[in-house]
Design goal:
four-stranded antiparallel β-sheet, 186 residues, mainly alpha, 50% helix, 6 helices, 6% strand
Length: 186
């Protein structure tokens, strides 16, 4: 598909935003790339917290195995026996505590940005759909949606400066395909 820029009425410098972000021959400058990039998916737990939870679970299983193995430690010191039986469980509890702290910190940062959109995965999918349909004019440095880009009766949008791109796409995605929802040209 070829789209014509609403500002300069040229099609030779227009490209889908997703393709512009991947173009190694003509890379976008860092500020423009940041504005056009998709925000990360909203998630409940960070990778660091998940890793700590998995490690805590593995150490917990090892600790339970050591606890129920029946090896009494022979004639070893009492401190050694306690350490060998409960040390791995203590490491598991420490990892679990650190994982909970990381997860709690992530949730508090997310609640600080609760007014930002998208908050759910479904909202993120709507935003992703709008961003995939958006085109960029490299000559004018504007973004726009061609006619029928989101659905068959979708009217072409006017061009917007790239600086307004994140808010503009969020507004369109929030409107969705509801009857009576504002179109991109509003």
């Amino acid at each position: 598909m070829i789209a014509t820029c609403p500002t300069c009425t040229a099609a030779d410098e227009t490209v889908a935003v997703r393709n512009a972000l991947l173009d190694a021959d003509r890379p976008l400058d860092p500020p423009t790339r940041e504005l056009l990039s998709m925000p990360p998916e909203p998630g409940g737990t960070t990778g660091a917290a998940i890793t700590l939870f998995v490690l805590a679970g593995l150490f917990g299983l090892l600790g339970l195995r050591a606890l129920f193995s029946g090896d009494g430690g022979g004639s070893s010191d009492v401190a050694y026996q306690l350490g060998s039986r409960y040390g791995v469980l203590l490491v598991a509890l420490i990892l679990l505590g650190i994982g909970l702290a990381v997860h709690s910190g992530h949730r508090s940062r997310r609640s600080d940005t609760a007014d930002q959109w998208p908050r759910t995965y479904e909202q993120w999918q709507q935003l992703h759909r709008v961003r995939r349909a958006t085109w960029l004019c490299r000559r004018c440095l504007v973004a726009f949606l061609p006619a029928a880009s989101l659905h068959p009766d979708f009217a072409a949008s006017s061009a917007i400066p790239v600086a307004q791109f994140p808010q503009w796409t969020a507004t369109i995605a929030q409107g969705g395909d509801r009857p009576g929802a504002p179109t991109a040209s509003n």
